């Protein structure tokens, strides 16, 4: 049996200051199993995850295993890192790893209660790519009436300027009086400066609502040649006063003209109306931790 000397310092009660002290020594005996070299862990398996590496292992059957250290080089922190696992743990998740750094080398070493270490077991593993982070912000484009136009204004009511007056009780109306023209009919926006990523919003007229059921979203840089980004043929609201916010569109190029081009209305009328309309300039920032 191995004997280890433990030093204990006893302190007497003090009234005005330190009066006396005494030393007490006692011997504690560790079993050989505690002070011997512990068995290493086995069957270490690594799993590549996005921005992480999962490590799993089998615990040794011997009872001399008290804790384990897992050491590796952290490329982001640029230093050696040591993680500690208890004798009951059989897994560890390594966060903030990157595929771009290639292989990580992990060193496993078990320790006994007497802090005697086993032989070191080394495994290598790789991480999947860490996911990119996308930050999205938007700002409302300040539209004025002279930036709006249509190919079928109703002459008796509902001027297109009402779309940007901030009053949901007013409305824009295409021509319902004779002579009517068939669809398509559009709302066009001439932008003061180019935008690229965007989304749009509108609110239906509160009463006597006739809204678009199928609409093309188009952009242009000259007002003559139009690119159709998408055709929306489902999900547009039909109820009075209903609101709609589109998905975010990310065209390859910026543009200076926008069209909301109605192909078909609910009820298949030859006109439509709308209370409010807005465009939003969208800023999309992407951080790729693998670059």
From TrEMBL:
Superkingdom classification of source: Bacteria
Signal sequence region: none
InterPro entries registered for this protein in UniProt: FA58C (IPR000421), Galactose-bd-like_sf (IPR008979)
One Pfam family it belongs to: F5_F8_type_C
Domain F5/8 type C span(s) in chain numbering: 129-279
Designated name of the protein: F5/8 type C domain-containing protein
Naturally occurring in which organism (per UniProt): Sunxiuqinia dokdonensis
